[in-house]
Amino acid sequence: MGEGPQAGEWGFAVDEAGLSLAVRLLADSAGWIRDPSPVPASVALPLPPKLPEQGVGPADALRTLAAPVLGGASRLGDPGFFAHMDPPTPWVTWAAAMWAASRNQNLLHPDTAPAARPLEQLAVSWLAPEFGMDGGHLVPGSSVANLTALWAARELRGVREVVCSQLAHLSVRKAAHILGLRYRALPVDGDHRVSLDRAGDLSSAALVLTAGTVTSGAVDPLGSDLGSAWVHVDAAWAGPLRLCRAHAAILDGVERADSVSVSAHKWLFQPKECALVLFRQAAPAHEALSLGGGYLSVPNVGVLGSHGSAALPLVATLLAWGRAGMAARIEHCMRLAGELADQVASQPRLELFRRPVTGVVLWRPAGADPAEVRGRLTQSFMSVADVAGQRWFRSVAANPMADPRRVVEDVVAALG
Questions:
Q1: What is the pTM (predicted TM-score) of this model?
Q2: Count of beta carbons in the 10 Å neighbourhood of residue 338
Q3: pLDDT for 43-78, tens place per residue?
Q4: What domains are there in the chain, each with its CATH number?
């Protein structure tokens, strides 16, 4: 890779000292933390407002950026971070992401990704059978996965309408709008599951069922289709439960879907921009989604053109941990959600919305605004969700290092 005589001069050769500096700054970043909250205040970047004419060099650039970027970031692995569907990432993904960046393979063309393309196919082949699917491909997130699946539904089954829960992710409505499809949202029951008794005629519709709603982690009845032309399961959040023998049954029925989306950058602990769109019959789906180009030796499948090797960190993690190791971490997170619910239920000044189903806990201080209380917290952080016009804390068990007791004690202390 550019190891000729000018590679070092131009900054493309391996620089062990520079890479060692980057690792050392990363390792030292834990000592820069001054704000006890897992989500520090907004950071002012010590950078010029205009593009500098002369550069400072790679080492000084890293030194300048390290403190605000590493030290000032939200600490997703902090014991007090029990908030969003955004996990900390294992160090093996940091190394693999660096490798991917160093080679910059473009999966659009076999010439520029002789190893990266089969690596993606391997990741899909490892995970697709868990959902009863026979193939698919990687995309940057489940928003693109949902769009891709509904595009296939339109092309293969003549779908003209998208029907889903009123709590479906906003990307489903976006996809319907982009594809020129009608959009119809159905009400939910008290457990936030879609009420299909009002679905009506679905013969020209794609029925989108959610496995893990954003607000509460609810799972729609996944075995349902009611004669719909296509069934898509948005399993962005809860999909990885299929790897856990203790919890796989929560997603029973997913194997009857025509397509499934899963966000690997949620409960598979991957860096951002890694998700999968999977199909029960991938060959016709990919053919329907393929466009050619004179310079391409293979069809361009799906929404993306040029894209990099997001599969490398994913495969590295799955290879390092295996199914059992991945399942153990997810099951641990599920236990943390249960422990948080128990802690909340034991406190007379706190209120629990319901027992968590897929690791999402809704709770709140009785008689106080959760958003206002959150502003007084010093050791923990939760997101805030609106449910039927009422605010609740929303704690998502995406952080294996989260400490439920610490979170509850911090809230109780903030109540005075």
A1: 0.95
A2: 16
A3: 889 999 999 999 999 999 999 999 999 999 999 999
A4: 106-308 (3.40.640.10)
